[in-house]
Structure formats: C-alpha cells, structure tokens
Fold this protein.
Amino acid sequence: MFTSSDAKGLIYDVLAVNPVSFAQHKDDWAKVVRFFTSALTTSTTRRRTGDAIKIMAAKAGADAEEYAKNVPGTHFLPLAGGEERLSKRATVSIRSMAR
C-alpha cells in the first residue's frame, strides 16, 4: 500500500470505482471520466488558468492569490498517463470512455 508518508509533499487524489457499480453504471462513469478530462484541460490551459485557479480556490475555501502559489507544484496526470498506469488485468480503456 502506498501512503503520502512515502513521498513527502505528495498528496495523491484518486478516484476508484467499485467493479459492480462500474458494471451497472458504465454510462455514468464514462460521464465522470469525460468531466474529469474537461476539467483537467480547463485547469491546465494557459489562457484559462486564472479562471481555473479562482474556481479551485473557491471550492477549497482558499484565497485565489494564495492558492495560485501552489499551482506550479501541482501535477495533473493526463488521461494517457493514467491509462498507462492501469493494471494489465484492466479490461476498460479510460481513453475510450472519454470519447
């Protein structure tokens, strides 16, 4: 098991889906993946970064200026990078769900 104590300064946010829920709600989970992809694009596009920081800061209950100081140290794993980290046993392609 990996914990953030193994990597000082690292906070890993993960979304895990119960296989039963996934099987019963594939279309809904596909929407979640599409939304995440859209949010990631919005938050990492230079011309939109200011707006993205305001939105994320508001959701975190933080001042946008203070929140902005943390953004350069934040790494958002792109969809392709996440797919590369899937187990070989995985049968669902994240990229195909985002289409």
